[in-house]
Recover the amino acids of this structure.
């Protein structure tokens, strides 16, 4: 972004990478896949790079409002300095925080989750599903993220993206408004679960495996970790893969 | 022929009725005032914006019971009870007037031939209520619907379980009383008793009439009077009882949905008192310096008084159906957290605070207890994934998550009481601007493998 600003250029969108997208080895692949899609579609975008900080979501949900607001304020300063208007992110937690919680702190942007953005690119014909792997007849099940679905009422966009793959989309019993959490939200990602009889991601992965799908599609870095761990726990790594929407589209595009 | 005894009896009944009505009104008023004043212990929160949207939410969710129909069969049964309850109130108005004025079936002369149709319709509703309540009771006791069983959900132990069943028995008995009353009335009409106006047969009780036709007039009057008194006293007891019960939802569902949150479920309430401080720390000028000067005595919520009035109204509106808990991922996987328990504990604490206030002349005297720790455990609130499933499920738009998050804020910010790994996460976020221990300088390394654009 700094580079674009220096050249007096303005991006179409700012791609908010997020901490998982920057540091988590598995999710970095999603970041790269999404960037390839953007490049292929000719979207003029920028990233903040090292100027980006955590949105503060896990701290806020864990009860630490100070840490959240410190991070939020400095992010808003950076975003406003570059005059950012439109943000796209692949993380539903970043999406929710930027969209719903930054305005009260003075940060007003149009914020779009990558599922919605991908759907727009497909609808506009800027992304064409051709030249890559075919998903025809393959069973895919989509795991709703709480922060997309119930938190922000986005249920259809990720499904439209998957439909574009021409795959066989199968639903889990608990889906859309009834979708079961992966177990990582609200700061759970960063601590051990409370004592219980089962881990939440195991409960969810059993449901996903019951659909017979060979691909579990996710749209959130935390869901990615939890579902991947679940598949490993059930020793199904070779038969069942967990992919983000962007990875599936990139594969179909042959990127 | 009117004899002296009949007249004294009638006057005696009227006086008794007025006395009972007065007592019920007084008890009800006292109870409602107490509930109102405990709700107002909560912090102010403006929920008056977008009145049109609020009204439509209330009409859809409370009046139209939209969310109950997520489960069509149960929704229909619940609707039968609800509509029966509302419409039978018209008949109760007539009964109350009868009680005060001593004039039986006062509406009959005004409505003429429509009267039996109307009462017939009420009877139809009463039978609906009766059947639905029997099915509900069977679901609780025989089918044993999981979310309602104390063996599975500790918050249902004791009074809540009994309360749920009592209410149903209450309604069944009341409906039987109404039908008995009408059937005995019809039999008396046939005998030409002057006190009972000729109305024509009613839809359902005409079939019960044969039970009463062989009896003599005096016995019939006793039957009719007994059922009449039993029914109206039952309703009075019910009216007072419900203010102590989970059944308060029949009233509070309406304001509770009207004042519900209109923002996306994912949005957490901001803490402006912290914004001011953060701005000062970051060296950003605050709009007004007064803003920074206001430091609250407590962050988040330790007790019910720290919650907003809407959180407290939520607690009184909860009917303990357990749809929230049934959908809660933490509860499903055996953690201690139950969103229903959060609401029930909040109400229990509020009731305790209310009793405390009553004892101490309207002023709350510190009893050394608080909502968190004494009612709700840290282990419960820490198990929450903030997934909003409980908020999504509630048929009357209660928000247990909002309470959980405020309790967390208190634990973490006021008491510095957080799981060790959360403290590590906070530290990472403060120093590396990421929840993991990575250097901020490495944030762009993911792009290393990409070929340069263009």
């Amino acid at each position: 972004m700094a580079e674009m600003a220096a050249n007096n250029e303005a991006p179409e969108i700012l791609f908010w990478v997020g901490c998982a997208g920057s540091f988590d080895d598995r999710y970095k692949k999603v970041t790269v896949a999404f960037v390839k899609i953007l490049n292929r579609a000719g979207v003029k975008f920028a990233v903040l790079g090292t100027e980006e900080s955590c949105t503060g979501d896990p701290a806020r949900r864990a009860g630490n409002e100070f840490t959240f607001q410190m991070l939020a304020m400095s992010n808003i300063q950076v975003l406003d300095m570059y005059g950012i208007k439109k943000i796209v992110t692949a993380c539903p937690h970043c999406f929710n925080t930027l969209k719903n919680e930054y305005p009260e702190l003075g940060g007003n942007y149009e914020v779009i989750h990558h599922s919605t953005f991908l759907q727009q690119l497909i609808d506009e014909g800027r992304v064409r599903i051709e030249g890559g792997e075919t998903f025809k007849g393959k069973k895919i099940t989509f795991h709703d993220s709480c922060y997309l679905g119930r938190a922000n009422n986005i249920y259809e966009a990720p499904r439209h993206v998957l439909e574009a793959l021409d795959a066989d989309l199968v639903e889990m019993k608990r889906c859309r408004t009834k979708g079961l959490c992966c177990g990582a939200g609200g700061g759970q990602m960063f601590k051990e679960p409370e004592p219980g009889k089962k881990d939440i991601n195991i409960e969810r992965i059993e449901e996903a495996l019951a659909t017979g799908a060979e691909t579990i599609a996710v749209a959130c870095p935390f869901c990615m970790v939890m579902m991947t761990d679940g598949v490993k726990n059930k020793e199904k790594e070779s038969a069942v893969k967990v992919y983000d929407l962007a990875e599936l589209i990139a594969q179909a595009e042959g990127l | 022929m009117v004899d002296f005894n009949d007249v004294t009896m009638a006057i005696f009944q009227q006086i008794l009725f007025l006395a009972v009505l007065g007592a019920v009104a007084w008890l009800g008023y006292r109870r409602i005032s107490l509930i109102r004043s405990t709700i107002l212990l909560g912090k102010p929160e403006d929920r008056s914006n977008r009145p049109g949207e609020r009204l439509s939410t209330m009409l859809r969710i409370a009046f139209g019971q939209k969310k109950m129909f997520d489960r069509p069969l149960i929704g229909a049964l619940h609707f039968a009870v609800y509509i029966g309850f509302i419409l039978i109130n018209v008949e109760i108005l007539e009964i109350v007037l009868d009680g005060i004025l001593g004039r039986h079936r006062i509406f009959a002369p005004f409505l003429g031939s429509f009267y039996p149709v109307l009462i017939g319709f009420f009877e139809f509703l009463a039978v609906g209520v009766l059947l639905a309540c029997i099915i509900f009771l069977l679901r609780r006791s025989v089918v044993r619907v999981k979310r309602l069983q104390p063996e599975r959900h500790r918050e249902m132990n004791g009074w809540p379980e009994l309360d749920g069943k009592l209410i149903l028995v209450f309604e069944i008995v009341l409906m039987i009383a109404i039908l008995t009353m009408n059937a005995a009335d019809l039999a008396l009409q046939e005998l030409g008793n002057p006190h009972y106006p000729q109305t024509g047969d009613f839809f359902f009780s005409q079939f019960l009439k044969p039970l009463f036709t062989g009896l003599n007039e005096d016995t019939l009057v006793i039957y009719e009077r007994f059922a009449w008194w039993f029914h109206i006293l039952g309703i009075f007891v019910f009216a007072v009882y419900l203010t102590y019960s989970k059944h308060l939802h029949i009233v509070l569902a309406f304001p509770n949905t009207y004042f519900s949150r209109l923002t996306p479920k994912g949005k957490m309430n901001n803490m402006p008192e912290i914004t001011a401080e953060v701005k000062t720390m970051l060296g950003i000028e605050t709009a007004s310096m007064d803003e920074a000067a206001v430091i609250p005595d407590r962050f988040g919520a330790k007790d019910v008084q720290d919650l907003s009035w809407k959180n407290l109204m939520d607690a009184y509106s909860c009917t303990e159906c357990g749809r929230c808990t049934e959908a809660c991922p933490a509860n499903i996987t055996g953690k201690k957290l139950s969103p229903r328990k959060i609401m029930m504990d909040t109400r229990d604490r509020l009731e305790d605070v209310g009793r405390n206030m009553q004892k101490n002349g309207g002023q709350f005297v510190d009893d050394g207890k608080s909502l968190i720790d004494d009612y709700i455990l840290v282990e419960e609130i820490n198990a929450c994934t903030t997934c909003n499933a409980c908020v999504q499920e509630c048929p009357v738009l209660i928000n247990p998550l909002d309470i959980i998050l405020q309790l967390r804020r208190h634990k973490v910010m006021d008491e510095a009481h957080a799981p060790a790994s959360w403290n590590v996460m906070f530290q990472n976020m403060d120093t590396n601007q990421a929840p993991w221990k990575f250097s901020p300088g490495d944030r762009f390394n993911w792009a290393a493998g990409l070929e340069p654009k263009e």
About this structure: Chain B is about 60% helix and 0% strand.
